[in-house]
Design goal:
It is a single chain. By secondary structure, this protein is of the alpha/beta class. It has one domain: Phosphoglycerate mutase-like (Rossmann fold, 3-Layer(aba) Sandwich). About 30% of the residues lie in helices and about 20% in strands. The chain has a six-stranded mixed sheet with strand order 3-2-4-1-5-6. α5 crosses α6. The longest helix is centred in the middle third of the chain and has 18 residues. The termini are far apart.
């Protein structure tokens, strides 16, 4: 092994978007604390097999991330994993007064952006809420803190579509608006590796929006 390789510390982030929310009634939910549907045996078998076994688990404070993490870990019956680290800064974007509005009617009244999967431009702040740029600024310090605390480990972070796009924006050094072009499906895996050497550090993107086979 070369000296450069032996001095490298790689921290692997396995981002998982939570399972589908089915009790939203077709409405925008943002940070509304709703349950998710964790009944798909194939989906959770695939996730359990694909994700690393010796990992630090992280969730946001919203229960759909807790339920998704529990559904994956429940399939590891021979193990008693430590409770996930709950990090409120990794919550979904707070969509303010947009939350609770009918999703179809909302989009019907707005001009669609061809470069975005999101509710609005990255700099648009809903009344009483936060912009996607605010989410990136909120999540960034938390990601850096966890990265320092668990350097060299595998981290399984069960979070949200917005949060995972924020992590991609930070990793790639792109404007937040650019990250809104990424599709992030429920129960998909996005892996982003942080690499540190004696003289430099940076990020590598290994997977985006990957659905593991059952």
């Amino acid at each position: 092994m070369s000296t450069a390789a032996s001095n490298m510390i790689m921290t692997r982030w396995w981002w998982v978007r939570h399972a589908p929310v089915t009790e939203d009634g077709g409405c925008i939910y943002g940070q509304a604390d709703l349950d998710c549907d964790c009944t798909s045996e194939d989906v959770f078998t695939g996730l359990e097999r694909f994700l690393p076994r010796e990992a630090v688990w992280v969730t946001s404070n919203l229960r759909r991330t807790h339920q998704t993490a529990q559904a994956i870990l429940a399939r590891r019956k021979a193990e008693t994993p430590a409770a996930p680290l709950v990090v409120p800064e990794l919550a979904e974007q707070h969509l303010g007064e947009w939350q609770g509005r009918d999703r179809a009617a909302f989009f019907g009244g707005r001009t669609a952006r061809p470069d975005s999967y999101w509710f609005g431009p990255a700099d648009e702040r809903p009344p009483g809420g936060e912009s996607f740029e605010d989410l990136v600024a909120r999540a960034g310090p938390a990601i850096a803190r966890i990265n320092r605390m668990h350097a060299g480990r595998d981290l399984v972070a069960v979070a949200h579509g917005g949060t995972i796009r924020a992590a991609l924006s930070l990793a790639l050094g792109t404007p937040p608006q650019t990250a809104l072009a990424f599709a992030i499906a429920n129960c998909s895996v996005t892996r982003i590796d942080h690499v540190r050497t004696a003289g430099a550090e940076g990020w590598r993107v290994a997977l985006v929006n990957h659905i593991p086979a059952p």
